[in-house]
Amino acid sequence: MELGDLSLEFFEMAAMVLECMENVHRNTLDLALYVQSWSGILLQYEHDEVRSIATDAYRKTTNEWQFVGRESLDCLVYGLSNLLHRVLQYGKTSGKTLPIP
């Protein structure tokens, strides 16, 4: 997705919509379709790894970067993971079995 870094609000809204759909359409909600679709997107997504400047001594010996500190939040990974977690939790509490792709 092109705007993955700007999509946190979108995924928060999607989680609210999913919760409403779970409450209204308990028996007709196709959870397996959501799991398959969202996990496919998540697996195909290429996360941009953050690299920081390594110390001079480390860089001279290994010619690699060493990450120091925390990476920034990847909204797409966070949002899809949260939606998948919610669907799997709902499936577990409702007694529905879901195929794991």
Brief summary of the model shown:
This protein has 101 residues and is mostly helical. It contains four helices and no strands.
Task: Provide the descriptors you would attach to this structure in a database record.
101 residues; mainly alpha; 0% strand; globular
Give the CA-CA distance, first to last residue: 21 Å
Q: What is the helical fraction, as a range of percent?
A: 55-70%
Mean pLDDT across residues:
77
Q: Please, how many domains? A: 1
Low-confidence stretches: none
Give, in order, the helices and strands: HHHH
Shape: globular
- Number of contiguous helices: 4
Strand content: under 5%
What oligomeric state best describes the polypeptide chains here?
single chain
Rg, Cα atoms, Å: 19 Å
Q: Tally of extended strands? A: 0
Classification by helices and strands? mainly alpha
Largest sheet: none
SSE layout:
Blueprint lengths: L7 H17 L6 H14 L11 H7 L12 H20 L7
Helix pairs in contact: 1-4, 2-4
Description:
The protein has one domain (4-94). The model has no long low-confidence stretch (mean pLDDT 77). It has 101 residues and is an all-alpha fold. The longest helix is centred in the C-terminal third of the chain and has 20 residues, at 75-94. The two termini are 21 Å apart. Helix 1 (8-24) packs parallel to helix 4 (75-94) and helix 2 packs antiparallel against helix 4 (75-94). The chain has helices at residues 8-24, 31-44, 56-62, 75-94. The chain is 57% helix and 0% strand.
